[in-house]
Amino acid sequence: MNTNIFVEHPSHNVVIIKLNRPEKRNALNISLLQDFLSTLKSTEKDPSKRVLILQGEGPVFCAGMDLAEACDTSKSIESSEILAQVFSALYHTPLITIAAVHGAAIAGGAGLVTACDLALASENTFFGYPETRRGLVAAQVMVFLMRQLKQKDLKELLLTGELIDAKKAQVIGLINQVVPQEKLLFEALKMANSVINGAPEATQETKQLIQKLYPSKFEEDLLLALSNHQQRRRSKEAQEGMQAFLEKRNPQWEI
């Protein structure tokens, strides 16, 4: 039985997939990512499903990758590659994807949001990319951010590592809507119903054409980002940054 992922079917055309590691703030470890990928692939085989709503169980949507696992050099390559596979699968799926975010979406968790077609968040939600504070580079999520944000906003997010609230996330284009917490799922389903009102083939072709018209190829950008991510994760800075985070201390950078 898969306990990393919950699946619900609120209607004939809509599926809800929930990240389910609430005790770890839905941190992205290899097992969860593999389960998510297999769940997504099996959902795509159901011709009745047109919209996927992505949520997280517990107090936050997703706190990012599991740094305890990321510190394990024997798993570094595998975890980075499965993360890239998940990002690519979300980007390319014929389903229209909606991230319904609450609490926090940090680093790779925020990456999941940007990989979705649409996103809305509750008012109390924070977003951020603190990778540089862990000695890392937000390389893979940068592939999506470059397609969605103005460069000044992108640089502010990635170079400062500061968290932003849902209202600012909407202003800069990271998400589409900010809604009250108690109406998050209602508004996500409302958005899903708006998508379903469109013709199925026309909706899918619209999504595909938007992706094809972008100047650079997604696959090439993601491969370049993955290579950078893997090199950076093996660096001394990354090992120090991640270990410092786990030990709840300030990292000691070599200058």
UniProtKB/TrEMBL annotation:
What molecular functions are annotated in GO for this chain?
Answer: catalytic activity
* InterPro entries named in the record: ClpP/crotonase-like_dom_sf, Enoyl-CoA_hyd/isom_CS, Enoyl-CoA_hydra/iso, Enoyl-CoA_hydra_C, Enoyl-CoA_Hydratase/Isomerase
Q: Which domain of life is it from?
A: Bacteria
In this record, what's one Pfam family? ECH_1
- Which PANTHER family does this UniProt record tie to the protein? ENOYL-COA HYDRATASE, POLYKETIDE BIOSYNTHESIS ENOYL-COA HYDRATASE PKSH-RELATED
Q: What family classification does the UniProt entry report for this protein?
A: Belongs to the enoyl-CoA hydratase/isomerase family.
Q: What is this protein called?
A: Enoyl-CoA hydratase
Q: What is the species listed in this Swiss-Prot or TrEMBL entry?
A: Parachlamydia acanthamoebae (strain UV7)
